[in-house]
Amino acid sequence: MSADASAGSGANDIAPEDHYEVVVIGGGPAGLQAALILARQLRRVLVLDGNRPRHSATLEAHGFLSRDNIPPNELRAAGRESVEHYETAEIQFAQVTRVQREGTGFIVEARGVRGSRARRVYGERIILATGLKEHFPHLPMLRAFYGTHIHSCVVCDAWGKRDARIAVFGVPEAKTLAYRAAQLSRIGSQVTLFADEQQVPEADAQRLRELGVEIDRRELEDAVGEKATLTGMRVVGGDIVPVDAAFVLPGYEAQLSFLDADLMPQLTDEGLVEADNHGRTGIPNLYATGELTAPGPEVLIISAGKGARTAIAAHRDATGF
Protein backbone atom coordinates (compact mmCIF):
# COMPACT_ATOMS: atom_id res chain seq x y z
CA MET A 1 0.00 0.00 0.00
CA SER A 2 1.37 3.40 -0.90
CA ALA A 3 1.95 6.10 1.68
CA ASP A 4 -0.66 8.25 -0.06
CA ALA A 5 -3.27 5.51 0.17
CA SER A 6 -2.73 4.82 3.85
CA ALA A 7 -2.71 8.53 4.68
CA GLY A 8 -6.24 9.12 3.36
CA SER A 9 -8.64 10.44 5.94
CA GLY A 10 -11.94 9.01 4.77
CA ALA A 11 -14.14 7.32 2.20
CA ASN A 12 -13.80 10.29 -0.18
CA ASP A 13 -10.17 9.30 -0.70
CA ILE A 14 -11.19 5.84 -1.88
CA ALA A 15 -11.95 5.30 -5.56
CA PRO A 16 -15.60 4.49 -6.42
CA GLU A 17 -14.62 1.01 -7.64
CA ASP A 18 -13.33 0.29 -4.11
CA HIS A 19 -16.71 1.02 -2.51
CA TYR A 20 -18.70 -2.08 -1.59
CA GLU A 21 -22.09 -2.66 -0.05
CA VAL A 22 -20.67 -5.51 2.05
CA VAL A 23 -17.10 -6.53 2.85
CA VAL A 24 -16.79 -10.09 4.14
CA ILE A 25 -13.64 -10.77 6.16
CA GLY A 26 -12.81 -14.46 5.93
CA GLY A 27 -13.17 -16.90 3.04
CA GLY A 28 -14.20 -20.13 4.72
CA PRO A 29 -17.61 -21.81 4.31
CA ALA A 30 -19.42 -19.14 6.36
CA GLY A 31 -17.86 -16.16 4.58
CA LEU A 32 -18.18 -17.61 1.09
CA GLN A 33 -21.78 -18.67 1.66
CA ALA A 34 -22.61 -15.17 2.88
CA ALA A 35 -20.99 -13.67 -0.21
CA LEU A 36 -22.89 -16.03 -2.50
CA ILE A 37 -26.26 -15.07 -1.02
CA LEU A 38 -25.45 -11.35 -1.24
CA ALA A 39 -24.20 -11.61 -4.82
CA ARG A 40 -27.43 -13.29 -5.85
CA GLN A 41 -29.25 -10.24 -4.47
CA LEU A 42 -27.09 -8.01 -6.69
CA ARG A 43 -25.22 -6.65 -3.69
CA ARG A 44 -21.67 -5.52 -4.48
CA VAL A 45 -19.60 -7.70 -2.16
CA LEU A 46 -15.88 -8.17 -1.53
CA VAL A 47 -14.39 -11.16 0.28
CA LEU A 48 -10.96 -10.61 1.84
CA ASP A 49 -9.37 -13.91 2.82
CA GLY A 50 -6.02 -14.22 4.59
CA ASN A 51 -5.80 -17.84 3.36
CA ARG A 52 -4.89 -19.25 6.77
CA PRO A 53 -7.69 -21.76 7.37
CA ARG A 54 -7.94 -23.49 10.74
CA HIS A 55 -8.41 -26.83 8.97
CA SER A 56 -5.24 -26.56 6.86
CA ALA A 57 -3.84 -29.75 8.44
CA THR A 58 -7.03 -31.74 7.81
CA LEU A 59 -6.99 -34.09 4.84
CA GLU A 60 -10.75 -34.40 4.35
CA ALA A 61 -13.91 -32.49 5.28
CA HIS A 62 -16.91 -34.58 6.28
CA GLY A 63 -20.65 -34.25 6.71
CA PHE A 64 -21.13 -31.60 4.01
CA LEU A 65 -23.99 -32.76 1.79
CA SER A 66 -22.75 -33.54 -1.76
CA ARG A 67 -19.17 -32.77 -0.67
CA ASP A 68 -18.52 -35.53 1.88
CA ASN A 69 -14.83 -36.58 2.06
CA ILE A 70 -13.64 -33.60 0.00
CA PRO A 71 -10.28 -32.04 0.98
CA PRO A 72 -10.96 -28.70 2.73
CA ASN A 73 -8.87 -26.73 0.23
CA GLU A 74 -10.95 -28.15 -2.62
CA LEU A 75 -14.16 -27.22 -0.80
CA ARG A 76 -12.97 -23.65 -0.39
CA ALA A 77 -11.83 -23.48 -4.02
CA ALA A 78 -15.25 -24.71 -5.19
CA GLY A 79 -16.88 -22.09 -2.97
CA ARG A 80 -14.76 -19.32 -4.44
CA GLU A 81 -15.66 -20.46 -7.95
CA SER A 82 -19.37 -20.33 -7.09
CA VAL A 83 -19.08 -16.80 -5.69
CA GLU A 84 -16.96 -15.44 -8.53
CA HIS A 85 -19.56 -16.61 -11.03
CA TYR A 86 -21.50 -13.46 -10.10
CA GLU A 87 -20.42 -10.15 -11.58
CA THR A 88 -21.09 -8.17 -8.37
CA ALA A 89 -18.81 -10.39 -6.25
CA GLU A 90 -15.04 -10.20 -5.83
CA ILE A 91 -12.63 -12.36 -3.84
CA GLN A 92 -9.06 -11.47 -2.95
CA PHE A 93 -6.40 -13.13 -0.85
CA ALA A 94 -5.44 -10.36 1.57
CA GLN A 95 -4.77 -10.12 5.29
CA VAL A 96 -6.94 -7.46 6.91
CA THR A 97 -4.83 -5.21 9.12
CA ARG A 98 -7.32 -2.54 10.19
CA VAL A 99 -11.05 -1.80 10.18
CA GLN A 100 -12.13 1.69 11.28
CA ARG A 101 -15.46 3.48 11.40
CA GLU A 102 -16.22 5.95 8.61
CA GLY A 103 -19.67 7.53 8.94
CA THR A 104 -22.20 4.70 9.01
CA GLY A 105 -19.76 2.39 7.22
CA PHE A 106 -16.16 1.25 7.50
CA ILE A 107 -12.73 1.64 5.96
CA VAL A 108 -10.91 -1.68 5.60
CA GLU A 109 -7.16 -1.92 5.07
CA ALA A 110 -5.45 -5.15 4.05
CA ARG A 111 -2.02 -6.26 2.94
CA GLY A 112 -1.73 -8.54 -0.05
CA VAL A 113 -0.80 -12.22 0.29
CA ARG A 114 0.28 -14.73 -2.33
CA GLY A 115 1.33 -11.90 -4.64
CA SER A 116 -1.94 -9.97 -4.46
CA ARG A 117 -2.07 -6.20 -4.05
CA ALA A 118 -2.77 -4.29 -0.87
CA ARG A 119 -6.28 -2.91 -0.51
CA ARG A 120 -7.95 0.07 1.10
CA VAL A 121 -11.71 -0.12 0.57
CA TYR A 122 -14.95 1.25 1.94
CA GLY A 123 -17.74 -1.07 3.06
CA GLU A 124 -21.24 -0.05 4.03
CA ARG A 125 -21.45 -3.23 6.08
CA ILE A 126 -18.92 -5.71 7.42
CA ILE A 127 -19.43 -9.43 7.99
CA LEU A 128 -16.78 -10.97 10.24
CA ALA A 129 -16.17 -14.60 9.27
CA THR A 130 -12.57 -15.01 10.37
CA GLY A 131 -13.09 -18.20 12.34
CA LEU A 132 -11.13 -19.03 15.46
CA LYS A 133 -7.52 -19.75 16.33
CA GLU A 134 -6.87 -23.03 18.14
CA HIS A 135 -4.78 -23.39 21.29
CA PHE A 136 -3.69 -26.97 22.03
CA PRO A 137 -2.36 -28.65 25.17
CA HIS A 138 1.43 -28.43 25.36
CA LEU A 139 2.30 -31.83 23.90
CA PRO A 140 5.41 -31.53 21.71
CA MET A 141 4.38 -34.13 19.10
CA LEU A 142 0.67 -33.30 18.90
CA ARG A 143 0.99 -31.28 15.68
CA ALA A 144 2.81 -34.15 13.99
CA PHE A 145 -0.34 -36.27 14.19
CA TYR A 146 -2.99 -33.55 13.97
CA GLY A 147 -5.30 -33.97 11.01
CA THR A 148 -4.38 -37.62 10.47
CA HIS A 149 -4.56 -39.46 13.79
CA ILE A 150 -5.52 -36.66 16.19
CA HIS A 151 -8.64 -34.62 15.47
CA SER A 152 -10.73 -31.98 17.21
CA CYS A 153 -14.19 -32.63 15.71
CA VAL A 154 -15.90 -35.83 16.86
CA VAL A 155 -18.90 -35.42 14.54
CA CYS A 156 -16.58 -34.80 11.58
CA ASP A 157 -13.96 -37.50 12.07
CA ALA A 158 -15.09 -40.20 14.51
CA TRP A 159 -16.61 -42.43 11.82
CA GLY A 160 -13.15 -42.98 10.34
CA LYS A 161 -11.87 -44.22 13.71
CA ARG A 162 -14.54 -46.86 14.36
CA ASP A 163 -13.27 -49.89 16.28
CA ALA A 164 -10.00 -48.08 17.08
CA ARG A 165 -8.45 -47.51 20.49
CA ILE A 166 -9.21 -43.81 21.07
CA ALA A 167 -7.84 -41.28 23.54
CA VAL A 168 -9.74 -38.15 24.58
CA PHE A 169 -8.07 -35.12 26.17
CA GLY A 170 -8.17 -31.33 26.10
CA VAL A 171 -6.88 -28.02 27.38
CA PRO A 172 -7.15 -27.45 31.16
CA GLU A 173 -10.27 -25.29 30.77
CA ALA A 174 -12.09 -27.87 28.60
CA LYS A 175 -15.70 -28.27 29.69
CA THR A 176 -17.17 -30.92 27.39
CA LEU A 177 -14.70 -33.78 27.62
CA ALA A 178 -17.25 -36.09 29.25
CA TYR A 179 -19.68 -35.54 26.38
CA ARG A 180 -16.96 -36.25 23.84
CA ALA A 181 -15.98 -39.46 25.57
CA ALA A 182 -19.62 -40.55 25.68
CA GLN A 183 -19.95 -39.89 21.95
CA LEU A 184 -16.87 -41.92 21.20
CA SER A 185 -17.88 -44.83 23.44
CA ARG A 186 -20.13 -46.08 20.62
CA ILE A 187 -17.35 -45.65 18.03
CA GLY A 188 -14.09 -47.01 19.44
CA SER A 189 -13.16 -50.47 20.62
CA GLN A 190 -11.67 -48.82 23.70
CA VAL A 191 -11.93 -45.19 24.79
CA THR A 192 -9.57 -43.66 27.36
CA LEU A 193 -10.38 -40.23 28.76
CA PHE A 194 -7.43 -38.29 30.18
CA ALA A 195 -8.95 -35.69 32.49
CA ASP A 196 -8.55 -34.38 36.02
CA GLU A 197 -11.50 -33.94 38.38
CA GLN A 198 -11.88 -30.28 37.53
CA GLN A 199 -12.41 -31.18 33.87
CA VAL A 200 -14.58 -34.23 34.57
CA PRO A 201 -16.06 -34.56 38.07
CA GLU A 202 -16.14 -38.01 39.61
CA ALA A 203 -19.91 -38.34 39.22
CA ASP A 204 -19.57 -37.89 35.44
CA ALA A 205 -16.54 -40.19 35.40
CA GLN A 206 -18.58 -42.96 37.01
CA ARG A 207 -21.30 -42.63 34.37
CA LEU A 208 -18.65 -42.87 31.68
CA ARG A 209 -17.19 -46.01 33.26
CA GLU A 210 -20.64 -47.56 32.95
CA LEU A 211 -20.37 -46.89 29.21
CA GLY A 212 -17.04 -48.69 29.11
CA VAL A 213 -14.83 -45.59 29.06
CA GLU A 214 -11.51 -45.83 30.91
CA ILE A 215 -10.80 -42.78 33.07
CA ASP A 216 -7.13 -41.89 33.47
CA ARG A 217 -6.45 -39.05 35.90
CA ARG A 218 -2.73 -38.85 35.09
CA GLU A 219 -1.28 -35.83 33.29
CA LEU A 220 -0.38 -36.30 29.66
CA GLU A 221 3.20 -35.62 28.61
CA ASP A 222 3.13 -36.30 24.85
CA ALA A 223 1.76 -38.23 21.91
CA VAL A 224 4.05 -40.98 20.61
CA GLY A 225 4.24 -42.92 17.38
CA GLU A 226 6.28 -44.66 14.75
CA LYS A 227 6.67 -43.67 11.08
CA ALA A 228 4.04 -40.91 11.37
CA THR A 229 1.53 -43.33 12.94
CA LEU A 230 0.15 -42.60 16.41
CA THR A 231 0.72 -45.54 18.73
CA GLY A 232 0.11 -44.15 22.20
CA MET A 233 -0.18 -41.34 24.71
CA ARG A 234 2.64 -40.95 27.23
CA VAL A 235 1.78 -39.76 30.73
CA VAL A 236 4.05 -37.97 33.17
CA GLY A 237 6.27 -40.67 34.64
CA GLY A 238 6.83 -42.41 31.31
CA ASP A 239 3.98 -44.92 31.05
CA ILE A 240 2.48 -45.19 27.55
CA VAL A 241 -1.20 -45.96 26.99
CA PRO A 242 -1.59 -47.66 23.56
CA VAL A 243 -4.04 -45.87 21.25
CA ASP A 244 -4.66 -45.71 17.51
CA ALA A 245 -6.35 -42.29 17.41
CA ALA A 246 -7.16 -39.34 19.64
CA PHE A 247 -9.58 -36.45 19.91
CA VAL A 248 -8.43 -33.22 21.48
CA LEU A 249 -10.58 -30.34 22.72
CA PRO A 250 -8.58 -27.14 22.05
CA GLY A 251 -9.09 -23.69 23.42
CA TYR A 252 -10.22 -21.07 20.93
CA GLU A 253 -9.50 -17.39 20.35
CA ALA A 254 -11.42 -14.96 18.15
CA GLN A 255 -9.14 -13.22 15.64
CA LEU A 256 -10.30 -9.60 15.83
CA SER A 257 -7.15 -7.59 16.53
CA PHE A 258 -7.64 -5.65 13.28
CA LEU A 259 -10.76 -3.90 14.63
CA ASP A 260 -10.40 -0.40 16.05
CA ALA A 261 -11.25 -0.33 19.76
CA ASP A 262 -14.62 1.36 19.23
CA LEU A 263 -15.64 -1.46 16.87
CA MET A 264 -14.80 -4.36 19.16
CA PRO A 265 -18.05 -6.26 19.79
CA GLN A 266 -18.98 -7.80 23.10
CA LEU A 267 -17.53 -11.25 23.69
CA THR A 268 -18.98 -14.18 25.63
CA ASP A 269 -17.18 -15.83 28.54
CA GLU A 270 -15.89 -18.36 25.98
CA GLY A 271 -14.37 -15.58 23.86
CA LEU A 272 -16.98 -15.78 21.10
CA VAL A 273 -18.64 -12.75 19.52
CA GLU A 274 -22.01 -11.90 21.02
CA ALA A 275 -24.53 -11.69 18.18
CA ASP A 276 -28.21 -12.39 17.68
CA ASN A 277 -29.44 -15.44 15.79
CA HIS A 278 -28.85 -13.64 12.50
CA GLY A 279 -25.32 -12.46 13.22
CA ARG A 280 -26.05 -8.87 14.20
CA THR A 281 -23.61 -7.58 16.81
CA GLY A 282 -24.16 -4.57 19.07
CA ILE A 283 -22.18 -2.44 16.58
CA PRO A 284 -24.38 -0.95 13.82
CA ASN A 285 -23.74 -2.56 10.42
CA LEU A 286 -21.17 -4.99 11.88
CA TYR A 287 -22.08 -8.69 11.71
CA ALA A 288 -20.37 -11.88 12.84
CA THR A 289 -20.99 -15.38 11.59
CA GLY A 290 -19.69 -18.94 11.50
CA GLU A 291 -17.43 -20.20 14.27
CA LEU A 292 -17.01 -16.70 15.71
CA THR A 293 -20.47 -16.92 17.27
CA ALA A 294 -21.99 -19.34 19.79
CA PRO A 295 -21.62 -22.21 20.20
CA GLY A 296 -18.28 -21.91 18.39
CA PRO A 297 -16.75 -24.60 16.15
CA GLU A 298 -19.32 -26.78 14.41
CA VAL A 299 -19.47 -28.98 11.33
CA LEU A 300 -18.77 -27.02 8.16
CA ILE A 301 -22.29 -27.23 6.77
CA ILE A 302 -23.65 -25.50 9.88
CA SER A 303 -21.04 -22.74 9.54
CA ALA A 304 -22.11 -22.28 5.93
CA GLY A 305 -25.75 -22.12 6.99
CA LYS A 306 -24.96 -19.45 9.56
CA GLY A 307 -23.21 -17.48 6.82
CA ALA A 308 -26.33 -17.63 4.66
CA ARG A 309 -28.54 -16.49 7.53
CA THR A 310 -26.25 -13.56 8.31
CA ALA A 311 -26.15 -12.51 4.66
CA ILE A 312 -29.94 -12.48 4.52
CA ALA A 313 -30.01 -10.29 7.65
CA ALA A 314 -27.48 -7.85 6.18
CA HIS A 315 -29.46 -7.69 2.92
CA ARG A 316 -32.69 -7.06 4.76
CA ASP A 317 -31.13 -4.37 6.93
CA ALA A 318 -29.80 -2.64 3.83
CA THR A 319 -33.30 -2.42 2.34
CA GLY A 320 -34.45 -0.42 5.38
CA PHE A 321 -37.51 -2.60 6.01
Automatic annotation (TrEMBL):
<dbReference type="Pfam" id="PF07992">
    <property type="entry name" value="Pyr_redox_2"/>
</dbReference>
<dbReference type="InterPro" id="IPR050097">
    <property type="entry name" value="Ferredoxin-NADP_redctase_2"/>
</dbReference>
<dbReference type="InterPro" id="IPR036188">
    <property type="entry name" value="FAD/NAD-bd_sf"/>
</dbReference>
<protein>
    <submittedName>
        <fullName>NAD(P)/FAD-dependent oxidoreductase</fullName>
    </submittedName>
</protein>
<keyword id="KW-0285">Flavoprotein</keyword>
<dbReference type="InterPro" id="IPR023753">
    <property type="entry name" value="FAD/NAD-binding_dom"/>
</dbReference>
<feature type="domain" description="FAD/NAD(P)-binding">
    <location>
        <begin position="20"/>
        <end position="299"/>
    </location>
</feature>
<keyword id="KW-0560">Oxidoreductase</keyword>
<dbReference type="GO" id="GO:0004791">
    <property type="term" value="F:thioredoxin-disulfide reductase (NADPH) activity"/>
</dbReference>
